[in-house]
């Protein structure tokens, strides 16, 4: 019997995933978490065959949550299930070693195919996303210069987190985040928060619609 963990902050999405997982796999055990922090606590208590992970989560992001999980267990299978299908984001997620990515716009049958492929340890990317990545029209060459940690911090800052809040979420000092921020601005050739915000917006990285620049 397969064991799953669904990580999403929206109850209706989690319930939908649970229903599709049980429909696809029959008898299975499904656990739920509404944040990255809750997911990290959950994986210490269960042995999930597959984690279905959203990118937009309260607290630490799905990317950071997956990074921490895979750091401790490289064999863990993760299926990213997100509303974002921009190539730059998909590439970042897959670069962690997660192995599967589909958007929430995918039909239920594609969700099932992705789950089954991920359980077999196979790479699976939604067909429409794959075509978009092959077209090579998405993403920014500037963003490609950022390493994994820099990209995570850039995304959090662009979505309205302060340097102090980023440090708290990533368990790093404010000074360390400040140093990262300086390096990020240098690599991206931006000089202020507004330029960072608009670069992130152009590349589909803004996941908090409440963010307003002063």
What does this structure look like?
The protein has eleven helices and six strands. It is 52% helix and 13% strand. The N and C termini lie far apart (52 Å). It folds into two domains: 134 residues, Response regulator (Rossmann fold, 3-Layer(aba) Sandwich); 62 residues, Winged helix-like DNA-binding domain superfamily/Winged helix DNA-binding domain (Arc Repressor Mutant, subunit A, Orthogonal Bundle), CATH 1.10.10.10. With 214 residues, it is of the alpha/beta class. It is globular.
Offer a concise description of the structure.
Helix 1 crosses helix 5, helix 8 crosses helix 11 and helix 9 packs across helix 10. With 214 residues, this protein is an alpha/beta fold.
Architecture per CATH nomenclature, i.e. the level-2 architecture of the largest domain: 3-Layer(aba) Sandwich
Number of domains: 2
Strand order of the largest sheet: 2-1-3-4-5-6
Q: What's the overall geometry?
A: globular
Which CATH class of the largest domain? Alpha Beta
H and E order: EHEHEHEHEHEHHHHHH
In percent, how much strand structure appears in the residues?
5-15%
Care to count the β-strands? 6
Q: Would you tell me the structural class of the helices and strands?
A: alpha/beta
CA radius of gyration is: 17 Å
Number of helices: 11
Largest β-sheet summary: 6 strands, parallel
| Unreliable stretches | 208-214
